[in-house]
């Protein structure tokens, strides 16, 4: 197949789970013999066109439209304040990418594409432009990794919501990342006959405890001042309210009461960083919570998983959550948020012989503490959960399986 892939974050500029997904799935498509052309944002210092691992990447150099938008934007966008530039950059990336795709690749070069894949609201403008230009001949698939309502607890920008709904109505197919998200989309009025579910994945060869460099692990233990007899709770993710990090920190005094030789390592960046640091001071646990607030390499991510005894992701709302797969692939027991929209519950079995973790209410620090204690109080049982987790990843959540399922959905649109 010839696939046009529109995604805001891509190599070498990765921000979160969407970027991880995009890099992994496109590489797998190419390995399986398909052609992929990626359109992504340019931060200003990247090549506008290059080939990387046999993937054709276009990054049109955006122009600053901030001085123009105030003339015609809605009051909703005015409320974005200083974040208006972010929206302007998104608009510029979309408009220039769609123009290059339609005018240069298709009309001038005569290139053929079987499907256009649009990822999240950040690329919906491109999708809507392409669909209006090629309404019948070029199938457009809208990949919904999250929604404005899900990200912001029902609130958020009306403009973003309109873009999401417009793309959902215009797309030939909607693919989302969990059955929980499918139900959420239906509740918002998205056309149910268009929606399909395809889970995300993990690379079990990379995230394999047998391949870990023990010297690197020891280096991290020393860097964080972790003693040999101390237990490690690990969180990785954006430091934002929806990830539940504040509640995890509030759970620490209860955890420490039963397991005093325990430390929490928090790896991630976000707008809540200063508030979280202040919270540890108010709780008098600054010596028990280690913040590593920076972008780290995949090797460092894996080393952090390796030093942990339990990985905790108490999200208040999570469409899927690749981090839990990474932890499970590393044979680590996991404690995950299971209330509201939770793709975690489709990954993590919390009872029976295939148990690989614990479901908790991410809104409740007491429940988070209970879940962590369930793991720490029985290391032998927790090790079995870790084994079960890796086995489950290998069975259901490899990138190869994800790519095969995604391609099958694409091919539905190209038959006949």
Q: Report the top-level CATH class of the largest domain.
A: Alpha Beta
* Uncertain parts: none
Shape: globular
| Structure summary, number of beta strands | 14
What is the typical, i.e. mean, pLDDT? 93
- H-E order: EHEEEHHEHEHHEHEHEHEHEHEHEHEHHH
Strand content: 15-25%
Number of domains: 2
Helix content: 40-55%
Going by helix content, strand content and strand pairing, the class is alpha/beta
How far is the first residue's CA from the last residue's CA?
15 Å
Count of alpha and pi helical runs: 16
Instruction: Describe the main β-sheet briefly.
Output: 8 strands, mixed
Keywords:
single chain, 416 residues, alpha/beta, Rossmann fold, 8-stranded mixed β-sheet, 6-stranded parallel β-sheet, globular
Textual characterization of the structure:
The protein has 416 residues and is an alpha/beta fold. It folds into 2 domains: 214 residues, Rossmann fold, CATH 3.40.50.2000; 188 residues, 3-Layer(aba) Sandwich (Rossmann fold). 43% of the residues lie in helices and 15% in strands. It has 16 helices and 14 strands. Strands 3-4-2-1-5-6-7-8 form an 8-stranded mixed beta sheet, with helices on both faces. A 6-stranded parallel beta sheet has the order 11-10-9-12-13-14, sandwiched between helices. Helix 9 links the parallel strand 9 and strand 10. Helix 4 runs parallel beside helix 6. The protein is globular, with a radius of gyration of 22 Å. The mean pLDDT is 93.
Record the SSE blueprint:
Elements lengths: L1 E5 L10 H15 L3 E5 L9 E4 L2 E4 L16 H4 L5 H25 L6 E5 L4 H10 L6 E5 L3 H4 L6 H13 L2 E4 L2 H9 L7 E3 L16 H10 L7 E6 L8 H14 L3 E6 L5 H10 L6 E4 L5 H10 L2 E4 L8 H8 L4 E4 L6 H4 L9 E4 L4 H12 L2 H18 L2 H14 L4
Parallel strand pairs: 1-2, 1-5, 2-4, 5-6, 6-7, 7-8, 9-10, 9-12, 10-11, 12-13, 13-14
Antiparallel strand pairs: 3-4
Helix pairs in contact: 1-16, 3-4, 4-6, 8-11, 9-14, 12-15
């Amino acid at each position: 197949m010839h696939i046009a892939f529109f995604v805001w974050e891509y190599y070498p500029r990765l921000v979160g789970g969407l970027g991880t997904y995009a890099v992994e799935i496109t590489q797998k498509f190419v390995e399986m013999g398909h052609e992929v052309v990626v359109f992504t944002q340019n931060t200003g210092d990247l090549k506008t066109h290059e080939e990387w691992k046999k993937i054709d990447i276009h990054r049109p150099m955006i122009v600053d439209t901030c001085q123009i938008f105030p003339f015609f934007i809605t009051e909703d966008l005015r409320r974005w304040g200083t974040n208006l530039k972010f929206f302007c950059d998104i608009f510029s990336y979309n408009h220039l990418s769609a123009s290059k795709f339609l005018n240069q690749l298709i009309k001038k070069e005569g290139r053929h594409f079987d499907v256009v894949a649009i990822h999240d609201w950040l690329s919906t403008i491109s999708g809507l432009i392409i669909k209006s230009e090629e309404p019948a001949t070029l199938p457009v698939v809208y990949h919904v990794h999250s929604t404005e309502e899900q990200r912001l607890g029902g609130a958020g920008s009306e403009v973003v919501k309109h873009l999401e709904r417009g793309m959902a109505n215009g797309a030939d197919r909607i693919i989302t990342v969990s059955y929980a998200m499918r139900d959420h989309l239906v509740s918002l009025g998205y056309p149910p006959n268009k929606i399909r579910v395809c889970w995300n994945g993990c690379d079990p060869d990379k995230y394999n405890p047998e391949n870990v460099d023990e010297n690197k692990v020891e280096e991290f233990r020393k860097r964080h001042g972790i003693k040999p007899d101390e237990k490690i709770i690990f969180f990785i993710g954006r430091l934002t309210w929806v990830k539940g990090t504040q509640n995890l920190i509030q759970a620490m005094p209860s955890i420490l009461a039963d397991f005093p030789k325990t430390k929490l390592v928090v790896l991630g960046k976000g707008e809540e960083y200063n508030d979280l640091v202040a919270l540890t001071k108010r709780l008098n646990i600054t010596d028990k919570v280690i913040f590593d607030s920076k972008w780290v390499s995949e090797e460092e991510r894996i080393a952090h998983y390796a030093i942990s005894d339990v990985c905790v992701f108490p999200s208040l709302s999570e469409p899927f959550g690749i981090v839990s797969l990474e932890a499970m692939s590393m044979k680590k027991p996991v404690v995950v948020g299971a209330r509201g929209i939770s793709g975690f519950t489709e990954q993590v079995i919390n009872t029976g012989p295939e148990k690989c973790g614990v479901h908790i209410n991410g809104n409740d620090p007491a429940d988070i503490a209970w879940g962590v204690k369930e793991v720490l109080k029985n290391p032998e049982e927790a090790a079995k959960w870790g084994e079960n987790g890796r086995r489950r990843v290998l069975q259901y959540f490899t990138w190869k399986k994800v790519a095969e399922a995604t391609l099958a959905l694409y091919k539905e649109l190209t038959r006949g």
